[in-house]
Write a structure and sequence with these properties.
- α1 links the parallel β1 and β2.
- The chain has eight helices and twelve strands.
- The strands form three sheets. A five-stranded parallel β-sheet has the order 2-1-3-4-5, sandwiched between helices. Strands 6-7-8-9 form a four-stranded antiparallel β-sheet, with helices on one face.
- The chain is α/β, with parallel strands linked by helices and about 240 residues long.
- The model has no long low-confidence stretch (mean pLDDT about 85).
- The protein folds into two domains: about 130 residues, Rossmann fold, CATH 3.40.50; about 100 residues, Arc Repressor Mutant, subunit A.
- α2 packs parallel to α3, α4 packs parallel to α8 and α6 crosses α8.
- The termini are far apart.
Amino acid sequence: MSKERILIIEDEEDILALVHFNLVQNGFQVECASSGEQGLRKARDFRPDLILLDLMLPGVDGLEICRRLRELPDTRACPIIMLTAKGEETDIVRGLETGADDYLAKPFSNQVLLARVRAVLRRQNRNDSDKEKLLPIEHGDLSIHPGRNRVTVAGQPIELTYTEFKILALLASRPGWVFTRGQIVDSVHGDDYAVTDRAVDVQIVGLRKKLGPCGPLVETVRGVGYRFQEQNGDG
């Protein structure tokens, strides 16, 4: 039986009860919160392996809660799946921009939810295992530490979301190699992940902005995808 801890932040009682029941039935340890503020407190105490976060919460909405979770040391790297009645591409992009790792529009089936939960946890566990074997990547002022999930620019730490870090680590692992948007999605999120090209572009824009003077290292290859700049042989 799985022992991963999942925190559900959802204000609709029937959905909360149903999701809680199905996750517990499948062996997960589950805690629930019916508001964003309560969710933040429980996230600090429960230390979840995954957070299911509703977008439309009373008071402080899910986007703001997502931002705050990404600012807390204990939850900064915790995967977040947003649950919402909104299914438009603009809402998906906003959620990803804020730091969500996956997105499920209501109504969703229990099978789809469980599949997404397991996929995210599998990916997180695999990444935790793989990054222990990886050496830091250095490129000028930019340092990427896969084992620590840490990025610095000129010695200053840069706070990236889980997805932004995975994209940067993927591109930097093969400087000069061009990755299509589809390859980026498959590598970061797995096959059949419902993310549009536009969402990938938004992630890249946010990544470049956070990297500041090192942002241009992530290059656009028009009509194809993205690559990480190669080191200058003479530099």
